[in-house]
Fold this protein.
Amino acid sequence: LKRRVLQRRRALSPPFAQPRVHLEGSSAMCPCFSLVVPRLVAAFALGLAWERAAADGEATKAILRGDGRKLEGAGAGLWAPVRLDLRGDLVTTQHFYTDVPLGNPSQSMPVLVDTRGGFLTVPCEETCEPHRCSPYEHGRLRLKVSSTRDVLRAGTCPAYAESVAGACRWSRDFVYGGAAVATVVRDIIFGRQGSLISFGCYTRTDGELLEATVSGVLGLAPGISGGSGGVSFLGDMLSKFEHKAFELVVKPNGGSVIFGERPPTSGVGTHLLVDTSGGEFVIFPQGLQAPAVGFSADASALGARAVIASAETNVRLPQLVAAALFDSLERNCERSNCERSKDPNNCFMLPDVADPILMFPTLTFLFESAAGGVAHVPWTPTDYLIKTGTTLWCVGVTAHDGPDILLGAAWLMRKKVTFVLKPTPVVVVEWQSAESGSASMSASASSGGSFGLGQMLAAVCFALALGILALIAVTACRGSSAKAPKGYNDLYMGHPGVPCQGGFSPSPQAPMMFKVPPTAMQQAHGLAHPLQHGFR
């Protein structure tokens, strides 16, 4: 009988009639799985559905951000939040830029993200004077293609522009080089119909205004420069949203900017006092420290203002402060078998070790808090060290003669900075947790929410169902051991509903059972169940 069983087993094709050892009494396991598992899945799905219903209860929360987090929607007549992805890095492009869709139909224009610029300016085919505009390898905006364009005429110019030759003109000298003159036009942005936004079309540009990666500038300053002041492009655009704020996230190879994002609550992130009256985001430094290398600079050495300048690559410090900082880093570096390079002088030749950035300390900026007192914002070597060669690492700090600190993209690295214009201007900084090493932001739930009631219900149901399932399994196994006939193993051929080939099973619903005597090895060890000795 055993030989016939083995022959039939080899002849059959899985999975239709594979023999299986089945201990008498264990048939209760099948109802366990067939009853408990569907209920387990149903309970888990019910909890998730409850959580989703609670999160989506308001119709205004209908737009999803690219990373899956919920964006808070706007009220009637207001825009829902808009997310733009950033491109660029600190090594090749040395700045970050994004694509802004303008006109109808939309035409995407690559623009530099500049928190010190107060206007959106792009090259336009119809306004650029011959031989006075840069080549702009990435193309120009074609106004005549857009069905919603509107060129402002003299007499209707905003406060920051002046009437020239029957049109509205705006001009500016850029802090990162070059100058531009633009004609003010109006058109839709982000594909949002029904509302026009003012921006500038270059008439001429002088000097090396921009790098080859971008064509224009997305000015995100709270005020405008040039002319006699007035509402900035940012203020005009944020007036279309419920929340007068935008969020800037800078990562090593990109990031994002979100307009109309709900500002963090008072318990989330570090809230810094900010002054926007001068048309820039100005925060107030109270010190810069690196205790691990014996470096410290107080407020008198740093100056009274620190300007957040996303178009800058590095952090610009006063010359004396920068020199003292690099001297401290150099002394610390010499103890670790590395040396400072001469050109450029803000770089270090590090030995070829597993993690060379561990040789450098964490810098801590001290700023005036919005709630009073001093707020600490760390700047880790992972953020301020930029690898530009095999063993060459550059510190994202340069010296300058200006009165202000400029906090460039190197300072913004791996931070989420929310710029709030109304009701009260404030800058909220959140940064990566150094302890976890993950992409989550400290003091915030970057995944988009807290542990909800529905999720808690799902977790409780899941745990209870697993416990019940384990209890039933243990009970069934014990029962099967008690009912098994002593000295015999049950061998079932065929599965219910699957006919066995060759006449082993007279009916698909009645698999045959054979009583197989125990083997000599089982008898020697007193074993009655083949599963206890690996028998198949």
Notes: The chain is about 20% helix and 30% strand. Residues 453-483 form the longest helix (31 residues).
